[in-house]
Amino acid sequence: MNVFKIKMELPNRKPTRLKNYNYGAEGAYFITICTHNRRNILSNIVGEGLCALPTIKLTPIGEIVENSIKYINSIYNNTTIEKYVIMPNHIHIIIKIKYNAN
Please, which residues bridge with residue 97 across strands? Predict the structure, then answer.
């Protein structure tokens, strides 16, 4: 079987970008990044009893991701990670871009 002839059946999705919007413009952006095949490799959600709120415990891969997210603030003068959460199979980030910092 020739693996190059296999056609991947991907779901039809609606476009998530706004038409005619300049995504290079200043602003705050909500970004979601999913792991390949939505594998739970970034963190585990754990609790410590009946009344305890669940917490997120990062895996070693999740720790690398968190260090990389924090590093963004130190290498880009016009970019700030406002908030983020690392879930078992995806990451949510609010990133703020500002070109004329005063």
Answer: 27, 79
Q: How far apart are CA 5 and CA 8, in angstroms?
A: 9
Cβ distance 96 to 30 under 8 Å? Answer: no
Q: Which two tokens stand for residue 70?
A: 């924090």
What are the distances in angstroms from CA 55 to CA 16, 47, 76, 94?
30, 6, 30, 20
Dihedrals phi, psi of 68, to nearest 5 degrees: -70, -40
Contact 81, 69 (CB under 8 A): yes
What number of other Cβ atoms are within 10 A of residue 62's Cβ?
Answer: 19
Tens of pLDDT, residue by residue over 37-67, are 999 999 998 887 777 788 899 999 999 999 9
What is d(CA 85, CA 45) in angstroms, rounded to the nearest whole number?
12
**What is this structure's pTM?**
0.74
Integer CA distances (angstroms), 17 to 21, 22, 95, in order: 8, 10, 16
Domain ranges within the chain, ordered by starting residue: 27-97
